[in-house]
Amino acid sequence: MSSQGRAIGVALLGCGTVGREVLRLLVDQADELAARVGAPVRVVGVAVRRPHRHPGVPAELLTTEASELVVRDDVDVVVEVIGGIEPARSLLLAALRTGRGVVTANKVLLAEQGADLYAAADASGADLYFEAAVAGAIPLLRPLRESLAGDRINRITGIVNGTTNFILSAMDSSGAGYAETLDEASRLGYAEADPTADVDGYDAASKAAILASLAFHTRVTSADVHREGIAELSAADVAAARELGRTVKLLAICERVRDLDDAGNVIESVSARVYPAMIPRSHPLASVSGAFNAVFVEAEAAGSLMFYGQGAGGAPTASAVLGDLVAVARNRVAGGRGPRESAYAELPLRPMGDTPTSYHVSLDVADRPGVLAQVALVFAEHGVSISVVRQTALDREAEAEGATLVGEGASLVIVTHGAPDAALRACVDKLAGQDVVRAVVSVMRVEGEVS
Question: What pTM was computed for the model?
Answer without folding.
Answer: 0.92
